[in-house]
């Protein structure tokens, strides 16, 4: 098995373990973690979820190394650029703050919140030359 195949297998196992461990896996739909699950999760579960996302991003970056698809075909490069300077803890804390400030929006998926509340502002700051 090549290194790339090992990375793909590891990412698949990690994602399945995270979704099944959270009790979200269903055969008929792709599980989406919402603010409800986020706010009800322990700090360890939140960190595990974010590590899973980070691992998937790293696998995708490694897979496309030297042949990165354009932004129109993947969100991963934009995700990485938009979160530049963030840590797992800063993302976790940002999500905690956002859901605490918006208790009426707990149905919003966590990935959507990360994208619109962290990635998009990060991309705009990068365009303006801000650190």
Overall mean pLDDT: 83
Q: N-to-C terminal Cα separation, in Å?
A: 40 Å
Major pleated sheet:
none
Shape: globular
Task: Return residue spans where pLDDT drops below 50 for at least 5 consecutive residues.
Answer: 6-10
Helix-strand sequence: HHHHHH
Helical/strand content category:
mainly alpha
Counting DSSP H or I runs of 4 or more residues, the number of helices is 6
| Assembly state (oligomeric) | single chain
Strand content: under 5%
Number of strands: 0
Q: How many individual domains?
A: 1
Q: In which range does the helix fraction lie?
A: 55-70%
Rg computed from alpha carbons, rounded to a whole number of angstroms: 16 Å
List the helices and strands and how they pair.
Elements: H1 3-21, H2 35-40, H3 43-63, H4 76-82, H5 88-101, H6 110-127
Give a quick summary of the entry.
With 131 residues, the chain is an all-alpha fold.
């Amino acid at each position: 098995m090549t290194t790339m195949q090992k990375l793909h297998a590891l990412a698949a196992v990690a994602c399945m373990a995270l979704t099944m461990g959270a009790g979200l896996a269903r055969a008929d739909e792709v599980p989406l973690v919402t603010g409800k699950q986020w706010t009800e999760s322990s700090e360890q579960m939140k960190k595990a979820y974010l590590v899973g996302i980070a691992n998937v991003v790293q696998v995708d970056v490694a897979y496309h190394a030297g042949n990165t698809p354009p932004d129109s075909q993947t969100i991963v490069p934009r995700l990485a650029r938009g979160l530049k300077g963030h840590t797992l803890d800063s993302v976790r804390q940002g999500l905690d703050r956002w859901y605490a400030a918006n208790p009426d929006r707990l149905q919003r998926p966590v990935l959507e919140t990360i994208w619109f509340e962290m990635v998009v502002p990060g991309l705009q700051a990068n365009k303006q030359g801000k650190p």
